[in-house]
Design a protein that fits this description.
The protein has a single domain (about 5-190), classed as outer membrane lipoprotein receptor (LolB), chain A. Helices cover about 15% and strands about 40% of the residues. The chain is built from four helices and eleven strands, in the order H-H-E-E-E-E-E-E-H-H-E-E-E-E-E.
């Protein structure tokens, strides 16, 4: 498979837009982290951009998460360059128009096969919620005045968060910048859709 810019964007995605209502301060970071960690079903739509040493670009994004299964759709301007990444039943597959699908057991393995990059794909579903991934050393560098994470360092990446959105369940990031060496990824979330709070 010919690695294009859309393949890395799709795999890295899971990394802001305008908040619809003001975000209230959280009473306790650990309570917020637990609530965000337990959120296993969501949809988000937005835009992801990548600045890489050899290429740069952006794509529209739609991400559906259902427990450990997910589907990420990326498309360029006017629907061109569509890429779909889907994790289902313990396998991850990347489909890009006109190319044979690439399949692997994990997102990290798929990333290596499709792009040659090493990236902690499985941590993205935590990072996108504004919390560190479990099971890996991390440093909570800075918090917003509302008590939400502003800067996180984990797995060699620095993640910067702002424009949190009040979702009704717990505030979630509207803008995430992930940086490592000469790679910079930006996710702008236009809309979070969560299950109704019980």
């Amino acid at each position: 498979m010919r690695p294009t810019l859309f393949a890395p964007l799709a795999l890295l995605v899971l990394l802001a837009g305008c908040a619809q209502q003001p975000v209230q301060p959280v009473d306790d970071w650990e309570t917020h982290r637990r609530t965000a960690s337990e959120l296993e079903h969501w949809q988000l739509s937005g835009k992801v951009g990548a600045r890489l040493p050899e290429n740069s670009g952006s794509a529209r994004l739609r991400w559906n998460q259902n427990d450990s299964d997910y589907r990420i759709d990326l498309s360029g301007p006017f629907g061109q360059g569509r890429v779909v990444i889907e994790a289902l039943d313990g396998r991850v597959q990347l489909r890009e128009g006109g190319e044979p699908p690439v399949e692997a057991a994990t997102g990290e393995e798929l990333m290596r096969r499709a792009t040659g990059w090493s990236f902690p794909v499985e941590q993205l579903k935590y990072w996108v919620r504004g919390i560190p991934a479990p099971g890996s050393k991390h440093h909570l560098v800075e918090f917003t005045p509302e008590g939400l994470l502003k800067t996180l360092r984990q797995s060699g990446w620095t993640l910067s968060y702002d424009d949190y959105e009040a979702t009704g369940l717990t505030p979630l990031p509207g803008r995430i910048i992930a940086e490592r060496n000469d790679i910079r990824l930006t996710l702008i979330v236009y809309q979070w859709s969560l299950p109704e709070a019980s």
